[in-house]
Amino acid sequence: DHRDLHRLIRRQRQMCIRDSCRRFRLYTNRIMSKYGWTYPASLAEELYKACGPYQELSAIVGPYNSGWVDEKTVLEETEYQAKWLGKAARYLMTHYRWDLMMTQWHGIDHMGHLFLGGIDPKCIYYDRLHEKICMKAMKKTYALADKFIGDILTCIDENTVICVVSDHGMIGVRTRGININKILQDYGINEPGKWRARRYDESYIVINLEGREEDGCVSIEEYENLRSRIIKILEDV
User: Of 35, 37, 147, 3, which is closest to residue 85 (Cα–Cα)?
Assistant: First the structure.
């Protein structure tokens, strides 16, 4: 309805205007639907009414790395999600009986990828002129995490066992990256104009399998040997 549209528009941001308003750039965040992402299904709309629209934070990483949103926008998006999760936790813990409550916030991870290297002089993309901005962002992120935990603590009693854990640590990138696709070509896996395997996203290598990929050229019989060869090549590199 019009109220939902108004909420969405308020969460958008005009990033720049050029050529006397003939061209402009608009950042739109990734707001989830009212339906289809909870169990039971009715819970999504219930949380929407109680806490507002839920927003997926990972959508901010690419725009920031691409240079078309600024640090202020990133922190606003991070704060919105952290506060939403705190409200949702309080709502669920006070409206439903529970024995175990688990929640996870990925904000520290996302902000670490974006800003942690900026405060580490050993990081390959450290910039002294950018250090204060990065430090401010990291401190803000941890403050939001503290507030999120504080929201949960308002809903427990003295018999509740509390565990705060991290899924992993993080440091800034201190070594130069390698070009996986160039390695695959240098070792004869790929030829110009014809790929048999290539890097996909951050952590995957896709084999161009017949029947699965649109231009698949690796038969199912070849698959295991090719995969083993690629693993061996990368281990040697």
Answer: 147
